Amino acid sequence: MTYRRSFSTSQHGRIRLSAVAALLVLIAGVTLAWWIVTQPPRIERQSPPEPTPPLVDVVSVSSSARSPDLQGYGRVEAEQEAMLASRVAGQLERFADGVLPGQVVEQDAPVAYIDQADLQLALEDAEAQLADAEAQLALEQAEQQRARSEYESFGRQLSAERRALVLREPQLRQAQALVSQARVARDQAALNLERATLRAPWRAMVQERLVGAGSLLSLGTEVLHLVGVEQFWVRASLPGEWLYWLKEGSRVTLTSSGWPDDEQREGALVSMLPALEENGLQAQLLIAVDDPLALNTEGPALRLGDVVRASYETTSKPNLIALPSAALRPGEQVWWVDDDNRLQRSQVTLAYRGQEHALVSSGLADGRRVVTAGLAQPSEGQQVRIRQRDDTPSSDSEGDT
């Protein structure tokens, strides 16, 4: 009995000791966890990395004699256009053969005929009136001859006024005036008879018949709408400052979206109009195109009212540098890269600026590597990297020469 009790007491003590040790371990773990959680993280400070220089596109420039590629749009209009009207009254008898809309009539060719019956009778009456007046003049001349013989045989001198009355000079002048009046009436009747046949004033295309055969015409009634076919005009517009590059008589190449891609027509700049276009206040130009309907030449035909694209032949000016328009910054400034690959800025003077290209007259030296793309917020002295491109075109190919 005594042995069992002492063994049981010893075992109980070991269990209590294990529990105390476990409790101490738990407390230590909780304390360590709390310390770890409450301690701020330690971040080792490092100096920031150097920013990577931006990658830019550049173009090397050089000056030479250059001219811009000026292009614009214009509308085709007639150089000669007329509403052919009747110059006599009467009934329209018929149109000449082939006088149809879209057909060409030659200069002085008959195009319409007015009934001539009344006009023929008027001519015959005028001729009769002229014959009667001439007969009256002949009788009066005989009377004057008789009166002169009597006056000479009378043997007395009369005053000038009385002598004129005795010699029937007023009656003679009256008879002569009646002859002249009758002759004018005869000529007018003959002219009206000739005008009963309407003729084309120039080589033209019939645009429209305005009346039909059988219509009763009065003086001035419009019969035909004619358009001259020898030449059309293209009324184009350009910014006023571009006129500096143009001169009258220069060649203009015309294209249209309605023509095949390889088709074009040639024209000549004939006039720079003094008035500005109402919409946009641009300068107006007239371009002449011979044989516009391609009746005698090869090529597409121009149509009235069509909108065509005009490419102008321009005059070259010396010592100009060509740049892509993308290289220009607000205030007519450009950025270029020096030998240390750092940005520099220059103020330039423009001789021309288009949508794609510009021409610089001063402010930029030959050989500069001008930045065309890649700059967001540039600053002078900023380091940059230049994009290497095997196919980068030079300024000569990009510019307008």
Task: List low-confidence stretches.
Answer: 391-401
Q: Overall 3D geometry?
A: elongated
Following the backbone from N to C, one meets helices and strands in this order, namely HEEEEEEEHHHEEEEEEEEEEEEEEEEH
Please, what is the oligomeric state? Answer: single chain
How many helical stretches?
Answer: 5
Q: Give me the side-by-side strand order of the main sheet.
A: 3-12-15-14-13-16
Helical content class: 25-40%
The biggest sheet amounts to:
6 strands, antiparallel, barrel
Measured between the Cα atoms of the first and last residue, the distance is: 126 Å
Radius of gyration, Cα only, in angstroms?
A: 51 Å
Number of strand elements: 23
Main structural class: alpha+beta
Strand composition percent = 25-35%
Mean pLDDT: 83
Describe the structure.
The protein is of the alpha+beta class. The chain has five helices and 23 strands. The protein has helices at residues 2-38, 117-154, 160-166, 169-195, 395-398, and strands at 55-60, 63-66, 71-78, 81-85, 90-95, 104-105, 110-114, 197-199, 204-209, 216-217, 222-228, 231-238, 251-255, 265-276, 283-290, 307-312, 317-324, 333-337, 343-347, 349-353, 357-362, 369-373, 385-386. Strands 3-12-15-14-13-16 form a six-stranded antiparallel beta barrel. A five-stranded mixed sheet has the order 19-18-22-1-23, with no helix packed on it. The protein is elongated and about 200 Å long. The N and C termini lie far apart (126 Å). The model is unreliable at 391-401 (pLDDT under 50).
